[in-house]
Every structure is written in C-alpha cells, then in structure tokens.
C-alpha cells in the first residue's frame, strides 16, 4: 500500500463547531493566548487556565466529526494513511482513523506536572487539587507556547516516508508544524485543501480551494476510483 500522509489544522475541525485556535483579533475565546496557553499563564493563574480548558473539553464532547474526518477514515481501505494533526481534539479518532499523531497534545488527556510521561485519559473538569500518583498537580496534556513539541521527530519521520501528501485546513505558516513539509520526499504529489489558499499551484502541488467537508470527500473519491 502507498503511504498517504495527511497534515490537518484548525480548518478541518472548525466545520464541526470547534473554534479555531485564534480569531482575527488575536484572541482565543476572549483571552490573550499567552494567558491560557503558556507556562507563564499557568503559573500566573492556574484556575483561569484550567477553567479555559474545561470549557474547551465540554465543547468537544458536544460536537461530532464531519464529512472530511469520515472521508479520511474511509481512505484507510485503500492506502496506508497516517494523519498528523495540529488539533487537540479527537475527531479523527471518532471518525475511525487508526493512525493519528497529535503534534500539540490532546484535550481529552491530562498529565502530571512532576512526570510529563505520566499521561491519563480525562473527560471531566480538571481542578486545582487534582493530583497525580506522586501528589503533584495535573495539567492539560497540551503543548503550550514556549514548550517543546515532543512528537515532532515522529511526525518528521512519517512525512519522510510519504508517497502522497495532503494538507487540510492549515496555512502551514506556524512553526515547527510548517517545517514538516520539508521532510517529505522531493517531487511527490501534494494536495492543499483550503477555502482561502495562500499559495499557488505548481508542478507537483494541486490546490483545491474548498472547505474541508467538500474538498476532502471529493479528493478521496478520486483516489478510491483510481484503486478500484
């Protein structure tokens, strides 16, 4: 089976009702992102950060995957599909995708502030005083501004083995995620699906100027017809 590597961003989840990471005014749900998505914000006001992610978690549990998520899951019947997402939701998994790498962590998980490898599933509110087994506070299992991206090495390796690359709902302008495309083999077919593409087509780059729920099923249909 050929390897299809998929890079997804906020655009694919926005259609399910998940707010994009940052609105045009630079705020996230009315907050400066550094207040709720940085180590400094955590140390300055832990309760604010926990409340912020508690609300995001509740929102996530109320939405469903959309047509783009389901189409990518269907693609697994014909190709070896590996998804690398900047999103912290679980919509890819809920739609049926089996191989998903979360660059920026997962909203439905928490981890120990004492041992970052001590990670656990978490679907309820997280509060001050919720401790790990070592009696240290638990925090959202999310990569904040200023923190390392531990899954980047794995993601770059996945990209290096791609035969086809799909980029969906992300501008690919935020690093280090934007650098992943540089690891893909030179000359492989690249498909960029976004309603407002910020790049132009080239010899091996095809632009599909559609929202994810339209463009992804259409492209998947093309791929599956080639395999049947």
UniProtKB/TrEMBL annotation:
Its EC number is 2.3.1.286. It catalyses: N(6)-succinyl-L-lysyl-[protein] + NAD(+) + H2O = 2''-O-succinyl-ADP-D-ribose + nicotinamide + L-lysyl-[protein]; N(6)-acetyl-L-lysyl-[protein] + NAD(+) + H2O = 2''-O-acetyl-ADP-D-ribose + nicotinamide + L-lysyl-[protein]. Pfam families: SIR2. Residues 1-228 form the Deacetylase sirtuin-type domain. The active site is at 104 (proton acceptor). Its main location: cytoplasm. Substrate binds at residues 53, 56. The keyword Transcription regulation does not apply. Gene3D superfamilies: SIR2/SIRT2 'Small Domain, TPP-binding domain. Keywords: Cytoplasm, NAD, Transferase. HAMAP family: Sirtuin_ClassIII. Belongs to the sirtuin family. Class III subfamily. 2 residues (Tyr-53 and Arg-56) present in a large hydrophobic pocket are probably involved in substrate specificity. They are important for desuccinylation activity, but dispensable for deacetylation activity. This is NAD-dependent protein deacylase.
């Amino acid at each position: 089976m050929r390897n299809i590597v998929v890079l997804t961003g906020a655009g694919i989840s926005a259609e399910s009702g998940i707010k994009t990471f940052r609105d045009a005014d630079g705020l996230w749900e009315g907050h400066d992102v550094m207040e709720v998505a940085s180590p400094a914000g955590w140390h300055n006001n832990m309760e604010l950060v926990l409340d912020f992610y508690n609300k995001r978690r509740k929102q996530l549990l109320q939405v469903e995957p959309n047509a783009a998520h389901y189409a990518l899951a269907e693609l697994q019947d014909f190709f070896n599909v590996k998804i690398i997402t900047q999103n912290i939701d679980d919509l890819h998994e809920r739609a049926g995708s089996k191989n998903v790498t979360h660059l920026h962590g997962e909203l439905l998980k928490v981890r120990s502030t004492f041992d970052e490898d001590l990670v656990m599933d978490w679907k309820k509110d997280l509060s001050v005083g919720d401790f790990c087994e070592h009696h240290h506070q638990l925090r959202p299992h999310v990569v904040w501004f200023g923190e390392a991206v531990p899954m980047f090495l794995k993601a770059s390796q996945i990209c290096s083995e791609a035969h086809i690359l799909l980029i969906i709902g992300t501008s690919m302008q935020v690093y280090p995620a934007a650098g992943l495309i540089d690891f893909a083999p030179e000359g492989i077919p690249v498909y960029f699906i976004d309603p407002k593409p910020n790049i132009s087509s080239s010899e091996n780059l095809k632009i599909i100027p559609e929202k994810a729920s339209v463009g992804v099923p259409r492209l998947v249909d093309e791929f599956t017809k080639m395999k049947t």
